[in-house]
What does this fold into?
Amino acid sequence: MTSIDLGLPGLRGVPTADEPQNRKEYVSDQEVRWCPGCGDYAVLAAFQGFLPELGIKRENVAMVSGIGCSSRFPYYLSTYGMHSIHGRAPAIATGLAVARPDLSVWVVTGDGDALSIGGNHLIHTLRRNVNLKILLFNNRIYGLTKGQYSPTSEPGKVTKSTPMGSVDNPFNPVSLALGAEATFVARTIDSDRKHLTDVLRQAAAHRGTAIVEIYQNCPIFNDNAFDAFKNPETRDDAIIPLVHGEPIRFGTDGRLGVVRDGFASLAVREVASLPGGEADLVIHDAHADDPAYAFALSRLTDAGVLHQAPIGVFRSVDRPAYDDLVRQQVTTSKETQGPGDLQSLLTGTDTWTVN
Amino acid sequence: MGVSPLPGGIGCLHESSGRPKLDLEMNRTVTIEVRQLDRVVIRFAGDSGDGMQLTGDRFTAETASFGNDLSTLPNFPAEIRAPAGTLPGVSSFQLHFADHDILTPGDAPDVLIAMNPAALKANLRDVPRGSTLIIDTADFTARNLKRIGYDENPLETGELDAYHVVPLNLTGMTVESVKEFGLTRKDASRAKNMYALGLVSWLFQRPVESTISFLETKFAGKPDIRDANIAAFRAGYNFGETAEEFSVRYEVKPARMATGQYRNISGNLALAYGLVAGAQRAGMPLVLGAYPITPASDVLHELSKLKRFDVTTIQAEDEIAGVGAALGASFGGALGVTTSSGPGISLKSETIGLGVMLELPLVVCDIQRAGPSTGMPTKTEQADLLQVMFGRNGEAPLPVVAAQSPADCFAIAVEATRIAVTYRTPVIVLSDGYLANGSEPWQIPVIEDLPTIDPNFTTAPNATNDKGEPVYLPYLRDPETLARAWAVPGTAGLDHRIGGLEKEDKTGNISYDPANHDLMVRTRQAKVDGITVPPLEVDDPDGTAKVLVLGWGSTYGPIGAACRRVRKVGGKIAQAHLRHLNPFPPNLGDILRSYDKVLVPEMNLGQLAMLLRAKYLVDVVSYAQVRGMPLGAAELAEVIGNLVEETEGIDDDARHLGADAAAVTHGEALHDPIAHNGHTSNGQSSNGQSSNGHTSTGHLNPEGAR
Ligand SMILES: Cc1ncc(C[n+]2csc(CCOP(=O)(O)OP(=O)(O)O)c2C)c(N)n1
Ligand code: SF4
Ligand SMILES: [Mg+2]
It folds into this structure.
């Protein structure tokens, strides 16, 4: 199998396409069946538009999803795909990635799929740093089962299963991923195609697990959950943009910024109120080794109804990928002990012969 | 009570050769008599920290290299180190070895080596009167005895008078023998298991070189410990040689076995090797996803050492992830394998169901243990049969195979791989704790003789669409096997999506069409039903038996031994054993219907019996025992004997066949012992030195087996 280094560590070992590809080649013949207006459409379109630019063979892309509205994603892409079972996609994708270094493996999952029933697999995949990319569609609701609250729903949420409001404290997926020692953690928004594509590009380039939380609107069961980020009136003050190497400044006319605040914490302040002005702002460092900084950033996300949250790449650091290490051990043992001789293995060292 | 120098305490003793021998080799001046035995059951028992499993393993290795047939039964507590000196902390290892082919680790020990009072107390009820007890007296203090409920010292009360007791201060003698190495008393006394091993190795004339080279390798990094263990082992051996207590040694000649090269192997090791062999025959890399669980963990341990055979092991975060990773690897064209025990299989059910739907190869090994729930993790049982047959939602049929002996785990793993790959389906392999940890001699197979397995990957379009363009239909089937066309990721032009949702016939697209679902459910069932399985063979020596005993899995040994006993006392009995539980062998129905009665012994409450009744409408007789231990050959012989007479219409009070069969002592012998000069052992220590060039020169056993 041909394998040309594209310069993207995340795709090392994946064969390159012979010819340039276009978006259409990645569109499957299956009719898309999400509700009209569902945020999943925008993500699919962005993804189909983005894949050709990777320049890898289409047949070497493998999508693995769990169960949920968002997990229908693989059916709509003309790549290899598996629509598996609820919550288990990271585990299945781990086996696939270990067995096949020549594949670009993507996991598609929802907030219920990844954080509720599949929470265990998610954190362990992140800690191992398997070379696969996780698209976490967070609509803060169970869409497919028609609208129960999810582990990311705001406290007090009234749904079919919580007529008096949910009493659950939610997860912040970015904080959770960082706590699980993820090496690449990002957040983006379904409707911002440019930003989404840019984050996907960085995720694809990353060697190891890259998790991208996508704020995804479910117009049927949780409409406008991310309205603050989309409404032209509010979005400038809502989106805290993370750009590596730049001060974290946002808001109408750049009036807001992020500063250090006490022990390992960050806070949003009016820039005008800072003694040093812009010089007091935190310069975003996605490559900081210590995850405490990225974690502090993640805490700037509202836990309840969303008014403000950082968007972009929180953390992107290098750590050996699990599947590379696993394969390296296989290689090393062949080199040091020689390729296995099955007959002599079966024979062992203590035998006797009956004539 | 004084010292009894083993005056015939061995249960199945033959008359002595009557020719007391002078053992020149050992520089001993007193005459040592060598008595011939045809078989011996020996049990080592001690605290779980006393190294009884290691001792048993070494004695087994010595015995295997000597050429006896053998069968072993380790038995240990679930706790790693239960409090020392207590009854729950007792660990034991039983070994049955013989000059003829045997099928079980033996019902009851002829010799018990008890390393402390708790080991004596916990094991005594299994030891028949007249047997030999070799007892380390060092721990027989009033306090230790009280702790386990002895008010008085059993060595002094006379309560052991019915046994041949050899009380020895093994610990004290061990400490004495390793004085020169300057170890603490505690460290020194830890070599007592090797002292005991040396003593019994002398007693039964075992070759010792392999144990010495084993100790050299095992403790290579700790010279003190290595030297102490070797010194203790030698001292134990020499003690037998010099002590006046021992004037008799025993000899069990090598067994007659089919010609070929042999080794000893445990079930879990055989299973690991079988999986590797299966993958190699299919030309596929093996990916194991597993989560540690007793008694399956050793398969994970063994496979993790075999990376150079293109074996990848993933110790997953849980059972679900283990099978998930395996299935993901299978999707990628590798042989995905997961190994577990009952509780783990429960957790894997949903993913196995996905495998049924995806129609991908997957080998799922269930090393059963006593349940339900956590049950008794270190004890054996066969109660997962119905779980693996039916424990999934929807109509989710899959093939089930079961190993019948430790060595058979190898062949069954190869067979499971053949079915999984050929038919693109998850396959369940059933083993159990008894097979997993038990061991037996194994005639080493020749790789080229194993079946070849063809994954037959699809690499080009296999159909045309309405427009006449070539397309790939992932659910187009081989008309013979009904296996679907399998293209793996990376194959150009054949990209496709599969999943757990119902699929349209041929295209694999999502479908909710009623008729299509009906068709797909029936097709998946038909595929499994149509798997080719060899016909069942019945052992019915003269074809006149009215009663058939039918078993599956690890009961093969006890059932076989019981049938031999019944035949020895004149009973007519047929025996057959199932290795394929789904689908059943094609001739099973006819066989069941051709006997007046069919007895089905199982270590569950009649699960196979239920399947047979449901499928064949034959009213089989279930014999069910769930004690966490293998079935006993004697009790089974009694049940069989009674059923044979009942079938012949003999009145209750006139029946004797069962009792007679149960009383047969040499029940397992089929052949006369070998007049051997064709046995050579090739013990190689792990450092590559040839350690044993034993060639037997023994006499013919004067009595032979009856
Ligand atoms: C074992 C199992 N339990 C429950 C379900 C039902 N179920 C399907 S999707 C889902 C929740 C999906 O929520 P999410 O992951 O947020 O996906 P979304 O539909 O919102 O995209 C549930 C509970 C299932 N398919 N399998
Ligand atoms: S229920 Fe919500 S998430 Fe699901 S398809 Fe409809 S809009 Fe999208
Ligand atoms: Mg959701």
